[in-house]
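Hi V.,

You were right to ask for the full record rather than a summary. Here it is.
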Amino acid sequence: MVLLAYGADIFISTNLKKSNKFVKGEYTTWNDLYNNNVNSKVLIMGSSRAWVHIDAKMIGDSLHTSAYNLGIDGHNFWMQEYRRILAMRQSVKPKVIIQSIDVFTLEKRADLFYPEQFLPYMLGNHELEKVTESFIGFTHPDFEVPMLRYYGKGKAIIEGVRMALQGENPPTRIRGFEGHEESWNNDFENAKAQMGSYTVKLDPATVKIFENYLRECQRQNIKVIFVYSPEYIEGQNFIANRTAMMGVYKRWAQKYNIPFFDYSNDPISFEKKYFYNALHMNKPGAEYFTYKFIQDLKKLPISYN
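Predicted structure:
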């Protein structure tokens, strides 16, 4: 039974990793991290706003360097930092980290967003267990007992079997970036109707991790650049303590000599046609923004190689 369980676990996990569409394509980035395929001089870190806003290939081509977007959907800096740690172990070490920040960067969610994204990498992975242990989602046996974590995850199992039988699997992310061909939806209107406004709650542990990260980059001569990418202007008023949150980043930028590009009031932020909800730009918006951002990056007296 144990041998069968291990065999089934290896079969499902190996094939599930191949899926470029399941869990918003997160396996693509996790695979590159675990298989040492990131190897970039410029890392782009952040949440989904990094993932869908900053085209790493455009940046790499324009700045004549290598760039990779590590943006992770639905997770704050807690999980972003784990991705950076994995990237730092690769043969090419980053010289520059573009840190995409937003009002939720320092707020830690209680559960794991898209927990299925971790399934293929969990068995015996004690480091990942430690990273995820403070979230609601998995327990110690899930990392030790083969197939246990797949209980109740029927869609993941089906996707793994499907990938074993289906050869065609076009990538959705290029160097970690994925532009979304979407038009404006009702996410913002629905959230505003339900809550009126939202107050961000700083997580002390995440704040500590973030500042430790800034200190470590400073010690290793890695240049950090803050960017607050465009955010639809009407949505900015939805966050009750947005000014206070921005103040936290501004103080860090000053303390650690970090360039801070804030596009909150850029003309893009006033054009609904560039967004599919208040927080996220669509593909035309992301491409237009990345081009503008590159022009600002070129003005900095730093080397990207």
